[in-house]
Amino acid sequence: QVQLVESGGGLVQAGGSLRLSCAASGRTYSTHVMGWFRQAPGKEREFVASIGRSAPNTYYADSVKGRFTGSRDDAKNTVWLQMDSLKPEDTAVYYCAAGFTLATIASVTTWGQGTQVTVSS
C-alpha cells in the first residue's frame, strides 16, 4: 500500500552529476529499507544502492562506490541518490525501491515507475 514517485533524471555529459529523489506515500510499513536499482537497454535490472534507517546499513554496488551517495529523511519519507562523476555506462532507467530488505529483486515490495538517466560520452 505504498506509492513511490521518483524524479531528477535527465541528460548529462560524462563527468557530470545528477541528484535523484524518491518520495514514499501511503502506508510505509515496508519502507524499512529504500534504495535504487537500474536497468540499461537490453539488460537485466541491477542493484545500485540501499539505504537503511541506520547509516551503517547503507550499501552500494561496486560499480558506483565512491561516485554515488544515498541519503534519506524518514520524517519526509524521502530518499535521494547523488550521482557524481557519471559515466556513459551509468545510462539506464533508475527505479526507486522499498522493502524490508533489498537483498534481491524478489525481495522488493514496492517499485517506482522509473526515471531516465542518460550520460553522453
Walkthrough of the structure:
The chain is mainly beta and 121 residues long. It is built from no helices and eleven strands. It has strands at residues 2-7, 10-13, 18-26, 33-39, 46-51, 58-60, 68-73, 78-83, 92-99, 110-111, 115-120. It starts with a strand and ends with a strand. The mean pLDDT is 92.
Low-confidence regions: none
Terminal Cα separation, in Å?
40 Å
Summing up helix and strand content along with how strands pair, one would put the structural category as mainly beta
Q: Give the number of helices.
A: 0
Helix content range of the residues, please?
under 10%
**Major beta sheet summary:** 7 strands, mixed
Specify the overall morphology.
globular
**H-E order:** EEEEEEEEEEE
List keywords for this structure.
11 strands, 121 residues, seven-stranded mixed sheet, mainly beta, four-stranded antiparallel sheet, single chain
Secondary-structure topology with pairs:
Layout: E1 2-7, E2 10-13, E3 18-26, E4 33-39, E5 46-51, E6 58-60, E7 68-73, E8 78-83, E9 92-99, E10 110-111, E11 115-120
Parallel strand pairs: 2-11
Antiparallel strand pairs: 1-3, 3-8, 4-5, 4-9, 5-6, 7-8, 9-10, 9-11
